[in-house]
Design brief:
LytTR_DNA-bd_dom, elongated, 2 domains, 252 residues, alpha/beta, transcription cis-regulatory region binding, DNA-binding, OB fold (Dihydrolipoamide Acetyltransferase, E2P), five-stranded antiparallel beta sheet, 32% strand
Length: 252
């Protein structure tokens, strides 16, 4: 049995989440409910829970402010939010778990299953990566993408990704240091995650590329983008116009 604390400033949402956890997550015991940043920090230090259900936006501050007060503790965290908060991108980059309200029962159970399967060290590393990514995104910097591998987490700066290649239900990352890293997520998930970062584009069904890692473009056979690792990636005819426009604008 794992102890948990719910941090949520809306009383009805707090009670609803409590009821859902009690009914559908028998491996979790909710030991306290909190509605403010200070109350949450006090209760977390008192109970030292293994898991936090943490609302991103509280009336008295943010869930991230609570985490920054817990340097000596490393609970697992499932974030909750009622809307597509700006921080969701940082959470996704960091491979942390979150739930959108109204909370879906199956998504709740899956999030609990995933966080309970990770080590305390992994939670600590993921939260550190999350805080770093929040700072980077707020200052228009370069966030780090967390890749969950079989026995470890790999933290990869976006600028170090040359290309991502589809491999069925898996994706292979080709990095500037020459390494190849395979992850058990399909390419569509990374396409959605990287949407809005103009340095990345899915130019073919099999590839997402880093536009800043292109060496040259070949015009033969419809067009290829030759990457910094000398691999030629075919440009889909449907993507060619957008590709050329992004290439023309990438240094503006």
């Amino acid at each position: 049995m794992q102890n948990a604390i719910i941090v949520e400033d809306e009383p009805r949402s707090r009670e609803l989440l409590y009821d859902l956890i009690k009914a559908h997550c028998p491996e979790i015991e909710v030991v306290a409910l909190a509605g403010t940043v200070q109350e949450a920090a006090t209760l977390i230090r008192q109970h030292k829970p293994q898991l936090l259900f943490l609302d991103i936006e509280l009336q008295t501050g943010t869930g991230f402010e609570i985490l920054q007060q817990l340097d000596d503790l490393s609970p697992a965290v499932i974030f909750t939010t009622a809307y597509d908060h700006y921080a969701i991108r940082a959470i996704k980059f960091s491979a942390a778990d979150y739930l959108l309200k109204p909370i879906d029962i199956d998504e709740l159970k899956e999030a609990v299953r995933k966080v309970l399967g990770r080590s305390a060290e992994s939670h600590q590393l993921m939260l550190a990566a999350l805080i770093q990514n929040l700072n980077e995104l707020q200052h228009r910097g370069q966030p780090t993408l967390t890749l969950s591998l079989a026995n470890e987490l790999e933290f990869v700066p976006l600028k170090d990704i040359i290309r991502i290649e589809a491999a069925g239900a898996y994706s292979t990352f080709y990095l500037t240091d020459g390494r190849h890293v395979m992850v058990s997520k399909n390419l569509k998930e990374y396409e959605l995650l990287l949407t809005g970062h103009h340095q990345f584009m899915r130019i073919h069904n099999s590839h997402i590329i880093n536009l800043n890692q292109i060496k040259r473009m070949l015009k033969t056979d419809g067009g290829y983008a030759v990457m910094s690792d000398d691999f030629p990636v075919m440009i889909s005819p449907k993507k060619k116009e957008t590709f050329i426009r992004l290439m023309n604008n990438r240094n503006l």
